[in-house]
Structures are given as C-alpha cells and as structure tokens.
Specification:
18 strands; D-Amino Acid Oxidase, Chain A, domain 2; FAD/NAD(P)-binding domain; 512 residues; 17 helices
C-alpha cells in the first residue's frame, strides 16, 4: 500500500486517559476526518471537554483525490501541522492539463494560483492516511480525547443532553454530551438519527480511485479528463513524489443509475486511456486496490442543525459541486460550526432554534461561490447535451490558452480561488440561462467563445442544441421538466445571493 514517504507513527496513549463515561462532555465529535479533527482542535484549545469517536483506527485510507488547494493549506498552517506534512517534501502542484475527448485543450500554469499574497501559489496531494493522522494529532495536542475503533450506533437527544451509543470492538458504551457534531461522512449515523440524512442522487457523486506509480516525469501538473463516458463527471491524475499518483474517476450518482453505468469498468477504462493519451503515463501501473465511495455536494445541503447538534464536512454536504473537492470545505464548515457551538456553550442554549444560526453563518460564507457552482452542475446534469457542452468547454479552454485574463475568470468559475459570479455571469453564462428559459431556441456557445451576437452563432451549434433539447424531452419528459425546474430554482437562488456579496468570502478565509 502506498503512503507519502513519512508514514505516520502512532503516538502512545491516544486511547488511554479518562473515559469520563459517567460525566458529560461539552462536545462529542463523531468522525476523525479533517472536519471532525479541526472541530475538536478548535473547541479543545478554548478549554472545552471534547471527545472524538472514530469508527476506524488511524492511519487509514479514504476514497479521495487527496487534493489540498491553497485555501486548505492556509488552514493547515493555522493548525500548526503544515510543517510536519511538508517534511515529506510533497510535490507542489502549480500546473494543469485539461483533456477533452482524449485531446489536450489546455496545458499551463493554474491561472488563479499566485494571485493572492496570503495564499501559497501551489496545491499538495497528500494521502488521507497521512493527512487525517496529522490533523488529528493537532486535536489531541489541544486537549481532545480520541476513542478509535468506536462505531456509533445511535444518537438520542434528550432534555438534559445527548446520548451517543457506541460499540468499541465487542464492548457497548454510552457517552453523554451537551452537543454532538456529526462529522461522520456521507452515510452519517448522526444525520440519520436526527432525520436529516440526504440521499438525493442529484447531489451525490460516485467515485473510484487508486494509487499508481510509473510516471515518467513529475512537473507538478494535475490532469483532468472530461469525456462522453465520464459526463457529467471527470477523471483525474494527480501526481505525487517518486513518480506516484492519485488516479480516479467520479460521476453523478443520478447519471450512473439512469444509464446503468458500471463505475469500476469506467475506472479501468480510464486507466487504459491514461496510458494511451497522457505523455507521462505510458508505463503507469496500479499499486493499490481501487476503492469506491460517494461524496455529497453542496447542492444537497439543507438543515444541518438539530436539537443539540450540527453536521459538518461530508455529513453536511460541504463538497464543491463542480470539482468534488471537499477537504478545504470540510475544514471551513468545522471552523464556522465551532464558533456557533462556543456561543451555545457560553449561553447554555442547545436547542435547534439557537443552533439555526449555524446555517445562516455557513450560507453567508459558502453561498456566493457554491450556489454558482451548483447552478453549473445542474445545467450539466442532462447528458443529452454532453456533445454541446464538450464542444463549448473545448472552445473556452482554447480561448483560455491564449488569454490569461479569461483563463482566470473562467477557471475560477469551475472551482477556482476566488469565484466572482457577477463577473463570470456577465461574461459567460447570462446567455446560457436565456437559452434554457426560451426552450433552447438559441445557441449557448457565443458567450463561451467570446462572441456577443447570438445571430452569428454557428448554425450547426444551434441545430445540435435544439436537437439535444428535444431528445431530452422525448426520452423522459417528466425528468426533463424536473431538471428545467431545478435550473430555474438554482438561478433564482443565485440572483438573490450574489447582490449581498461583494466578493467570495472564501478568498479571505476564516479566523482560526
């Protein structure tokens, strides 16, 4: 099994210490991924009693692209663990290659990196078995107690606290707290116990990933593949030190179900494509068994609070809708949630009405960027338009290769450093919305290619767009109508969100 050089060594005493089963913790955090550990670190350093319950025994692998962009690195630096992670000299990711239909349409530096002096101009690929261990150490050093191999079976809120029933190996235990935090992933037991578990396939991505080795060069260039068979989704190859790489595919759960797609076959087909197409992957071989899993994107984020508890990370759908990147958003949701929990403990208020301020806070922070991404992801859910979208995206990247300003704007629109929906919409997407609201009577490509006069749009594009529209209607009119209504709702939400946001709050980050 592949690790990133400095395989973490287990600290002694992590499962010892007082169990406090007869006492009440201030907070019990369920899950020791990045969101749960950041939450525990943030609260414990303020002097609160925090218990972390983790089903597995760390270090352990997780299905993830392992991609940590500059905003995530900023948080890790604030926690104090970035330096220890850098001891392995991870590869700095500064470049990107975009492949559409196996043709490279963009290759160069990531255009929105290095635009802010308070952020590093690179990303890292750090395996989760390394990352999660180091972030959890921060929580332990801050004073949190960690119980591993502790599977939560049920969570029950009462008038005087919350009870968490746990199975530790063969032993059953019950822990009590004032507040519980669900950081236990897409299949969250905490969310299920609160009646908030969301399994909407429109906002779930099914992924398969493995580690590989044999890259002929390491130039810090991430590669993304967008093809017909992966749409709406993509394949990735994220290089690491020593000729190794994180390789995977992700596709919308709704699409997988509607078209009976075998994700495992999709993954191995992608590996063969990498070997054929990518100049550094001819000798690529898989060095670990492929793992599968799901992530839940921000479009499915709903009421992430309840009496005596909140949901963070993947349990609360804090994943970017276009890229599927979730590590940074998970840690950000934890920092937002920790401030709400601090206020709740100070005031002795644990009811849902008081904790509803958590939703207000995370909406202010995430909505300006992620509601825009959610609209984009919704537009691309209709596979009947895949040819048209792929052609439009190809043209956009061709222009981005020539125009650095356009590259920064359009690239940010798909998960960049600072998403400015007003600027992006003004230059790229306004006419696309107009197309959809007039039932596909015009081509959407003119704003992407830089043309402003729809009359001059290519007639073949017009015909292809209209044909796709009517094929979608004929194929499944009920689904098509639902999809069109989703677009209208996402658009209305976006235009009510962006006037109050002068910029993307995620660019400035959060106070740790």
């Amino acid at each position: 099994m592949l690790a990133q050089s400095n395989h973490p060594q287990r600290r002694t005493g992590r499962e010892t210490g007082p169990t406090r089963r007869s006492e009440v913790y201030d907070v019990v955090v369920v899950g020791a991924g990045p969101s749960g550990s950041v939450m525990a670190w943030s609260l414990a350093r303020k002097g609160m009693s925090v218990l972390v319950l983790e089903r597995a025994r760390l270090p352990r692998e997780k299905v993830c692209g392992d991609f940590i962009e500059p905003r995530g690195l900023r948080i890790l630096k604030g926690l104090g663990c970035l330096e220890s992670l850098q001891e392995a000299t991870p590869l700095q990711i500064t470049r990107v290659a975009i492949y559409l239909q196996s043709q490279c349409v963009y290759r160069g530096k990531i255009p929105f990196y290095g635009q802010r002096s308070d952020l590093p101009p690179y990303a890292y690929i750090i395996p989760r078995l390394v990352l999660d261990y180091h972030v959890l150490q921060c929580a332990i050093e801050a004073g949190a107690i960690v119980r591993e191999e502790s599977a939560v079976k049920a969570v029950k809120s009462t008038h005087d606290g919350v009870e968490i029933k746990v199975q530790h190996r063969s032993q059953d235990s019950t822990y009590r707290a004032n507040i519980v935090v669900g950081a236990d992933g897409a299949h969250s037991i905490v969310a299920k116990s609160a009646g908030l578990l969301n399994h909407d396939p429109r906002y779930m991505t099914v992924a398969q990933r493995a580690y590989g080795e044999g890259l002929s060069e390491n130039i810090g260039e991430a590669a993304f593949f967008v093809d017909q068979d992966l749409f709406p989704g993509y394949g990735w190859m994220f290089p690491m030190v020593g000729g190794k790489a994180n390789i995977g595919v992700g596709i919308l759960s709704e699409t997988r179900d509607r078209y009976k797609i075998n994700v495992r076959q999709l993954f191995f087909g992608f590996i063969e494509k990498l070997r054929r197409v990518h100049p550094f992957c001819a000798d690529l071989c898989i060095s670990s068994g492929p793992l599968g899993g799901i992530v839940k994107t921000y479009g499915g984020a709903g009421q992430n609070y309840f009496n005596r508890g909140i949901l963070i990370g993947d349990a609360g759908c804090f994943v970017e809708p276009m890229t599927g990147e979730g590590i940074t958003a998970a840690m950000e949701s934890a920092l937002i949630g920790s401030s709400i929990i601090t206020a709740a403990l100070e005031q002795g208020r644990f009811d849902a009405a008081f904790l509803s301020s958590y939703e207000q806070a995370f909406r202010r922070y995430f909505d300006p960027a992620l509601c825009y991404e959610d609209l984009c992801a919704t537009l691309m859910r209709n596979r009947h338009f895949s040819d048209s979208w792929l052609k439009a995206i190809a043209r956009g990247y061709e222009l981005a290769q020539k125009d650095e300003h356009f590259a920064r704007i359009s690239g940010a629109g798909f998960g960049g450093m600072e998403v400015d929906p007003l600027n992006i919409a003004a230059q790229i997407w306004v006419k696309i919305i107009g197309v959809l609201t007039t039932h596909g009577s015009q081509s959407p490509f003119s704003p992407i290619t830089g043309e402003t006069n729809s009359i001059s749009a290519n007639l073949s594009d017009l015909a292809a767009w209209q044909a796709s529209w009517w094929r979608s209607v004929a194929s499944d009119p009920i689904w098509h109508t639902s999809w069109a209504m989703d677009i209208s709702q996402k658009w209305l939400k976006l235009i009510t969100t962006i006037p109050g946001a002068a910029m993307d709050p995620r660019a400035n980050g959060l106070l740790l």
